[in-house]
Amino acid sequence: MSFSCSSDCFSDLLSGGEDYSPEYSSDLESRTPDVEEAIAGLLEDERDLFRISSTSRSDHHQRWPIDASVRAESVSWILKVQRYYGFQPLTAYLSVNYFDRFLHSHHLPKINGWPLQLLSVACLSLAAKMEEPLVPLLFNLQVEDAKFIFEPRTIQRMELLVLTVLDWKLRSITPFCYLRFFAFKIDPTGNYTDFLTSRATEIILSSNQERSFLEYCRPSCLAAAVIICAANYLPKFSSITAGQHAESWCDGLINKDEIMSCHELIRQIAFNNIWAKSFATAPNHVL
Asked: Are 147 and 76 in contact (CB under 8 A)?
């Protein structure tokens, strides 16, 4: 059952801090002749901006109030709506990015319930407006068993609060900027590029549901790690590892240890998910 919240709910949310995030195009759509130079420049900018944003986040780290299971529930709802409307994966990723950045720098009066639902709707709405050609009405965006239903004006006020906290920086460097570049590094023929990027996209979204990568992996490192994970699904590329291959991909601009750490984190998430599903479906006499 859904619970309707009027704009009066919003008044409890109007206190918080500031955050920093880079303002960049969220997609790199094609391989131009100078793509290596473009990627190198992107990596240089990412390194500088990630250092600044990490410093900003560390100032607010003690204020991270949300339990992992509560976050996973909010992200799960965002992904359901993304699939319901056929939004781009990038839209879902940016929604979660806004969600995590907001919570890293702004204190909510409650760590679960309607404030998080309102935040989820607002972040998804903003991301859809950034990336989608057609965006549902705010009321219609609240589908897939939304626990609370908000008036459009309430969501709009929350959108403004999110924009204020994020300093209106909604475009950022994302792993999707790099996926095709790394896919071509693994498969220069391009025969498996679509599979690698598609599988990597699935891994990014499913892993991001379980864990925020905001503090742990730069977008380039996450992209390299998930492309390697995707490649390992194919016998042809099963021997590819982060330690042996990834460091040479960007002339030292990308750190092998960071990629290996991110790769291990993703593998651990995948293992835990498989174990949890197996445990949940095991016969009673086994349990």
From this structure: no
